[in-house]
Amino acid sequence: MSDNYQPPKVWTWDKFGGGAFANINRPVSGPTHDKTLPVGKHPLQLYSLGTPNGQKVTIMLEELLAKGVSEAEYDAWLIRIGEGDQFSSGFVEVNPNSKIPALRDHSTTPPTRVFESGAILLYLAEKFGHFLPKDLPGRTETLNWLFWLQGSAPFLGGGFGHFYNYAPVKIEYAINRFTMEAKRQLDVLDKQLANHKFIAGDEYTIADMAIWPWYGNVVLGNVYDAAEFLDAGSYKNVQRWAQEIFARPAVKRGRIVNRTFGAPNEQLHERHDASDFDTQTEDKRNA
Ligand SMILES: N[C@@H](CCC(=O)N[C@@H](CS)C(=O)NCC(=O)O)C(=O)O
């Protein structure tokens, strides 16, 4: 890597480019190996990892179960993206884009595949009739924020988080550019939450479940170790909302499913039954 890099006429793939994720990044799509995905006992089969994008879906499923929707019982299988599990032939069948989370609903014939975390939240909200207002204005405002998140989070994660935290070199230009955008986005949320209990209004919706794993985790200091750098305490309304959401039991459960990092008692690598949370806590207490 050099300070005065000039792009060549045609880019070629340097497999040894270095940096976090260098071993899994490729300029082509499709499977790298043949492997089918496991299928458990529930109609909903989730293939995921406990990153913010993964947390959105497991929080939604746990919230549905907390509401008494027993049909939302699910198996959550671990996809280790650092080891290339997202490039198996089975995973690519469920998500041709090779990114977690991916869901297959076996309660339909044939089974329905759902990929893109925002599409999964919408699918589950519509299937079970919860967390998406039924009136058109309320539904629209919720979808405004859901789509806002899907478009904005890559600047926070792929932009700010990558260059501030993961990149092998600290590039001032890139950090400044994405910090500016991350702070602008936090300010958008702060202004919205100044007059609204939840993101889309008075109701807790899939917009909150999409936004909290990204912006809630950042202001609570759970990701990128950047709360001080971003002066996260100054976004008072985002702080209030982030703490309220974090206090929800379903969020506490959902955020640890398929998680392979952090404190051992905050990792439940696979989830196949509600009782897995008790076993996990018990195991870690006795460890
Ligand atoms: N827009 C996608 C983004 C999903 C995504 O970026 N997933 C990451 C983990 S958070 C992933 O699977 N990365 C693996 C890879 O890039 O190979 C969504 O919302 O589902």
Distance between the termini: 44 Å
Give the proportion of residues in helices.
40-55%
What spatial order of strands do you see in the largest sheet?
Answer: 2-1-3-4
Order of helices and strands: EHEHEEHHHHHHH
Shape: globular
Bound molecules: glutathione
**What is the number of beta strands?**
4
Instruction: Please state the structural category.
Output: alpha+beta
Strand content: 5-15%
Number of helices: 9
Rg over alpha carbons: 19 Å
pLDDT averaged residue by residue: 94
What's the oligomerization state? single chain
Task: Walk me through this protein's architecture.
The mean pLDDT is 94. 45% of the residues lie in helices and 6% in strands. The chain has helices at 52-66, 89-94, 117-128, 136-166, 172-194, 206-219, 236-246, 249-254, 276-286, and strands spanning 44-48, 74-78, 102-105, 112-115. Glutathione (GSH) binds next to helix 3. Glutathione binds next to helix 3.
Structure described in brief:
It contains nine helices and four strands. It has 287 residues and is an alpha+beta fold.
